[in-house]
Amino acid sequence: MSLSDLDEPVARANERALDLLFTSDPVLIDVRPAVAVLPGMTRDTVLTSGPPLPWPEYTGGQREGIIGGVLYEGLASSREEAVRLLDRGEVRVGGCHDFGCVGSLAGITTASMPVLVVEDSASGGRGFCTLFEGAAPDRLNYGVYNAGVQRNLEFLAEVVGPLLSRVVRSAGSGIRLRPIMERALRQGDELHSRNAAASGLFLRAVLPALLDLDAAQARVLISYLGADDYFFLRPAMAASKVMADRMYGAEGSTIVTAMAFSCREFGIRVAGLGPRWFRGPLPEIETARLLPGRTRDDIEPMGGESLITEVCGLGAFAQAAAFPLESYQGGPDAMVRRNLEMYEITAGEHPAFKIPFLGYRGTPAGIDVARVAATGITPALDVGIAGRGGGQIGAGSFRAPLRPFTDAWAAFRSQAATPTPTS
Amino acid sequence: MSLSDLDEPVARANERALDLLFTSDPVLIDVRPAVAVLPGMTRDTVLTSGPPLPWPEYTGGQREGIIGGVLYEGLASSREEAVRLLDRGEVRVGGCHDFGCVGSLAGITTASMPVLVVEDSASGGRGFCTLFEGAAPDRLNYGVYNAGVQRNLEFLAEVVGPLLSRVVRSAGSGIRLRPIMERALRQGDELHSRNAAASGLFLRAVLPALLDLDAAQARVLISYLGADDYFFLRPAMAASKVMADRMYGAEGSTIVTAMAFSCREFGIRVAGLGPRWFRGPLPEIETARLLPGRTRDDIEPMGGESLITEVCGLGAFAQAAAFPLESYQGGPDAMVRRNLEMYEITAGEHPAFKIPFLGYRGTPAGIDVARVAATGITPALDVGIAGRGGGQIGAGSFRAPLRPFTDAWAAFRSQAATPTPTS
Q: What Pfam families does the record tag this protein with (chains A, B) (predicted)?
């Protein structure tokens, strides 16, 4: 079967995928403990970022994060016991994507952690993501677990999660996220590395409901939502997860539905190829800014699934909406060039996510493995950078590896060449 | 006396002017009725925009606005009586700038209207501006006075003003405006035609104090502050007024301290030339977007002093921070070109108002009449557009006329050539 034979049905399938992506309407409807809402989640499961690996293959900060998750859940009372339970498989390690959620950096998600519940009002599908841990350099998702991290996670679970749940539920039909995302792109955010405007817009959206709390509770929540400008990354991720997952409904499509990495591998999934991961080496740095005194040798990959935003035409695919990031994305000209390049590997332009600097052109959306394979251009990725020994040490613009895309395209063609039982 | 003899002392004076501008720290400290705080204000004074004219010379919407102001204050019970009082001078018409305030569009400011009280913490100087009337096309400042306009002005005076005053005063030492302005420039505002981010940031800044109101009052104020994205223009104007006025302290400086226009004339003031207005024809449109069905023939100038933002390196001097305005400012490339051009006529770059797209370069600040005269480049101006018969019909980018700048420069040179009594 030649490429040209594939062209028309694939184009139709991709149109269908884009239609599903573009008509999604993600709504934050609740904030609940992971075990209560994630399909398949159990008390003795620890989820983490990336195409899943056998437990022994997780190293460094990602491994530390998983161990921290076991301790945080009280499944073990010492590091050694936690490792033993993991070694014996008595605590199961899973990939976030297989449980309907996405994880930031190491993406550690355990049973009692509150997750944002985002529902697509068009389909009823759901996506989930844990809450932002705050700006402290020590965070479980950056491979650190200590008394301070534990206290902060408890505060999220016992105070922030329940309050946010009350506020979101009292807002009638929830908080529609897409209007916030659309506006934030006009206010300097690309909704991956920059969420300053969106975090403020979210606060405004919940304000009426916030006034129903008593003043002390309202102050706690306002302080959490407003203290840093990163809160909204998590709603953006959960929203992107549910939008991207809808595209699995487009059989025969070559559009990417997930990109994620672990400490070892980068992987993608494709609408027409189901849950199978196509794996390759880790993304490479194009440009980055690190904390003073840190060098590229200090960088340690610990995983990351916030790339789900790029899957939906955000993040690096909307860099020209976020010039405030220019100091670590190579300057405005490079950002514009990189953003324009992404149109070469996407099947469409988002009808609602728009870039003012490009004359309100829709963001490049729907990464097409066929186009990536044909051009050799791989997706640009905006990501936070973890350092050896744990903690965030910077942020930068990365490039996905080519192999997962060419492998997926090859698998797609060979699948298309195999008559299915019904044909 | 030749130009070169002037060069050094003028450069020093201009540095001093910029230093005063750049070290200003405008703080919103209260919201009070105009008569209580504007120096020289009386119950039978109506203030309006632009270099002052004798009453009979005000025409069209600006004249209607002044008459509306007389009626709103209850100084007359009919339009005819109002005109009679104005004709006889029993109601006095004044220019906003002479009373420490600036007016948006027609700039009608009367005794009982609440004004934002902005104080420069560095000098104790004050600037004032009325509150945004809301997004309704019928507004007093757009030349319309009717029962709806009256009700809205009463709501501002009786409800919004007092509530905002309570909130601002309860915030301890007031609300510092400069940090909000600095951040807004990173979120797509230029703080003249676009104030979407700044309005949200202002709401966040007063939120802690807002929680002290009862919930019903808080809801009223939140609804006013958040209903439209234009609230912050007025704080930005009052802040710009007090920042610009500080530059009068720089004797011998050729930096512009005010730009304003009436229905007839455009005028400027210069730091080294005191309160004298240098007048010229009205600004000309470079590019504009009008409401559907409206043409340039429908445009009616009714005055405007929001150009005080351009005096401080904002508005058109920060267009490249506000690409969301591209659809009516000629597209992103034109906006960048126009913004860069402004560096040719300014004496410095603002150390805190920065443009991400220009690599965080400071905005061009301190319009120098000598540079304008030498280059023939006049200031670009972002302005709202009023229509014949009243109401807003669009917005656009305008250019100031050259004459006031060349006249001011000539006056400056001839003043410098005349020995003063003390020399």
A: AllG
Q: Which of B186, B211, B357 sits opposite A332 (nearest CB)?
A: B357
What pLDDT is attached to residue A419?
Answer: 61
Residue B149 to chain A, least CA–CA distance (Å): 27
- Determine the residue type at A304: G
Q: What is the pLDDT of residue A226?
A: 84
**Cβ proximity of B127 and B241 under 8 Å:** yes
Residue with tokens 């009337």: B133
Instruction: Show residues of chain A in contact with B327, CB under 8 Å.
Output: 360
Superfamily for domain range B3-18+248-415: v583 domain like (3.90.1700.10)
Residue of A189, A207, A212, A327 to mutate for B, most B C-beta atoms under 10 A: A207
From-to residues of CATH 3.90.1700.10 in chain A? 3-18+251-417
For B403, the 3-state DSSP assignment is helix
- Which chain B residues are closer than 8 Å to A188 by Cβ? 186-188, 197, 356
- Cβ B208–A187 below 8 Å, yes or no? no
Q: Where in chain B is the domain with CATH 3.90.1700.10?
A: 3-18+248-415
Q: Outline where DSSP puts E strands in A262-391.
A: 266-270, 278-280, 284-290, 346-355, 361-367, 380-386
* Coil/strand/helix, residue A267: strand
Domain with residues A25-236, CATH architecture: Alpha-Beta Complex (3.90)
- Domain A3-18+251-417 fold is v583 fold (3.90.1700)
Contacts of A356 in chain B (CB under 8 A): 188, 323-324, 326, 332
Q: What is the amino acid identity at position B43?
A: R
* pLDDT (tens digit per residue) in B318-366: 999 999 999 888 999 999 999 999 999 999 999 999 999 999 999 999 9
Q: Is the ipTM of this complex over 0.85?
A: yes
Q: How many Å apart are CA A304 and CA A106, to the nearest integer? A: 6
Q: How far is B208 from chain A (nearest CA, A)?
A: 7
Q: What is the pLDDT of residues B76-127, one digit of tens each?
A: 999 999 999 999 999 999 999 999 999 999 999 999 999 999 999 999 999 9
Provide the 10 A C-beta neighbour count for residue B196.
23
Residue span(s) of chain B under CATH 3.90.1710.10 come to 26-236
Kindly identify which residue of chain A lies nearest to residue B221, measuring between CA atoms: A208
Name the minimum distance, in Å, from the CA of B227 to any CA of chain A. Answer: 11
Q: How many CB pairs under 8 A join A and B?
A: 83
- The fold of the B26-236 domain, in CATH, is Enterococcus faecalis V583 fold (3.90.1710)
Q: Is the dihedral of CA B359, B364, B370, B371 positive or negative?
A: positive
